[in-house]
Amino acid sequence: MGFTVAIDGPAAAGKGTISRAVAAHFGFAHLDTGLIYRAVGKRVLDGEEPLDVARSLSAEDLDALGLRTPQVAQAASRVAVEADVREALVDFQRAFAMRDGGAVLDGRDIGTVICPEAPAKLFVTASPEVRAVRRHKELLETGHDAGYDSVLADVRARDERDRTRATAPLKPADDAVTIDTSHMSIDEAVAAAIAVVTKARG
């Protein structure tokens, strides 16, 4: 049986960076579950029905070009509130989590819904303002022209959608360790996460 690490948190809090580093440190497989929803969102933007896409999603869809654009992010956030879409994607994620050799999954509902029995759970967060600065820098570096104010509004809108959706709202699991990265370096945040996982492994 593999060892599962569940890492949740809002957009641009650093959970992806932390998850990849934790997976590399322990030699675990890594799944950015946000990419699953982005892959669905992208195909929906191309004219497909969300539930049809969720039921037919493949690993190749996660390698599609253009999954990191703001338009796809918004589409992903919209399809993620649909209960039947989320349900269709649960098995995909749980199968990954149970793989031999260990797995790190990051998303919005890993510790609460997908892997509630995971022995290591983290909730990575940061203030909306700090997260907007990070996302704005990312967008500029990838050639997307977006103003900070619009990015901050976008971050807050996604937070509101994620926290208030009826199915699997964004919240820490009761037994998750919260890491606030607002004033932490990447190295500090990664070290804190590795310490949590190391302790959970005993």
Short synopsis of the structure:
With 202 residues, the chain is α/β, with parallel strands linked by helices. It has 9 helices and 5 strands, in the order E-H-E-H-H-H-H-E-H-E-H-H-E-H.
Descriptors for this entry?
Rossmann fold, 54% helix, globular, 5 strands, 5-stranded parallel sheet, alpha/beta, single chain, 9 helices, 202 residues
Measured by DSSP, the beta-strand proportion falls in 5-15%
**Strand order, largest beta sheet:** 2-3-1-4-5
* Biggest sheet character: 5 strands, parallel
Q: What order do the SSEs take from the amino end to the carboxyl end, as H and E?
A: EHEHHHHEHEHHEH
Q: Any idea what the radius of gyration is?
A: 16 Å
Q: How many domains, in number, for the residues?
A: 1
Instruction: Tell me the span between the first and last alpha carbons.
Output: 16 Å
CATH fold type: Rossmann fold
CATH architecture assignment: 3-Layer(aba) Sandwich
The count of strands amounts to 5
Summing up helix and strand content along with how strands pair, one would put the structural category as alpha/beta
Classified by CATH, the class is Alpha Beta
User: Averaging pLDDT over every residue, what do you get?
Assistant: 93
Overall geometry = globular
| Tally of alpha and pi helices | 9
> What is the CATH superfamily?
P-loop containing nucleotide triphosphate hydrolases
